[in-house]
Model the fold of this input.
Amino acid sequence: MQAVKVGVLGLGTVGGGTVNVLRRNIIDITRRAGRDIEITRAAVRSLDRSTICSTEGIVLTTDAMEVVNDPEIQIVVELIGGTELAHDLVLKAIENGKHVVTANKALIALHGNELFAKAQENGVTIAFEAAVAGGIPIIKAMREGLAANSIEWLAGIINGTGNFILTEMRDKGRDFVDVLAEAQALGYAEADPEFDVEGIDAAHKLTIMASIAFGIPLQFDKAFTEGISKISQEDVKYAGELGYRIKHLGITKKTEQGVELRVHPTLIPHRRLIANVDGVMNAVLVQGDAVGPTLYYGAGAGSDATASAVVADIIDIVRALTTDPENRVPHLAFQPDTLADTPILPMSEVVTSYYLRIHTQDKPGVLADITRILGEQGISIEAILQKQPEHHNGVVPVIILTQEIVEKNMDAAIKQIEALSSVNESVMRVRMESLG
Done:
């Protein structure tokens, strides 16, 4: 049987890794796919730049459209990143009847609905396992392995940069700014780290997982995002004293009112397995009604780890090349004409519990004022921790853990607490999840 010809757009970290993994494991890959797979063309930024892989036998070009328009190419692998050029290339590949593999989470989160519809019209597949959590096969697990379940919720550490920063802050007592600088020096964080530390990268991935979990269209614009830049060393320390760890989580839940879609720092009990995922590693915890909780752990980025997911998608497409397009696994797990119109809940309607850090003046009656305000908003207190005054300046850190309450009530309470004359700084709020 004739070999399946593949074109790769981009031979950077992931593209080069894809070539290396495919060639290194070609014997086993061929046995699993049932056909030979050959990378015959690749688009690169410059013909003079070196790559991390051998390009022997691969025709190189600086014009990505040449790859997309090559009539012999059956699978186009998009690894250039960004959204504008990638969108045009993927759309053209689909129109040309080619299957697509991508690691581009922003492309899928922002344009997936359009691209999947176009792929359906043209009888081709878009595979995107590498777009979420690198080498962890979470997309396949939810689309196929958990297909018998009604997914109730999932929570994930899906950005290694943020997890590295919070781990260093906890283990070594370092400040956010200091660890961020190291993460940039190590190449974990970009020069502009906003996508990582403010939750945008994680929200792209969470949007994709929520669609697969609940059978809803991709709706990145409705995802709530909050970063970790305001997390202080004292918050990490106080959380530890109370038996919790702070993780930057992506959380999505299906409730009677709608679907929660949120990324934010979260206190979780230190005994949970996911609370012990450290450094640059990723993990996703999925709760199914039949199977219960399942945890998926591994490298969320890196050359070979992400290439593992890319090549796995290529293999899946090769296996399915002779399959009736109508009987392939749907892109978002549910058949396109059955996607639900379940609304995404605004953050103000989300119900969760909270960690509050309040810097108050060391005066009589302050704590009574705070507890009164919380009580008026129907907020029950789980625990209070009052520390010694800081630096003899009369400022006392008060730590409060609350029971579950709707977010809009907490917003109102915080606004009133910050208006107290005895409270001179903004209240630090971190949401809490038991993940039980």
Summary: Residues 166 and 247 are 7 Å apart (CA to CA). The chain has a mean pLDDT of 93. The domain at 143-299 is CATH 3.30.360.10 (Dihydrodipicolinate Reductase; domain 2). The two ends are 50 Å apart (CA to CA).
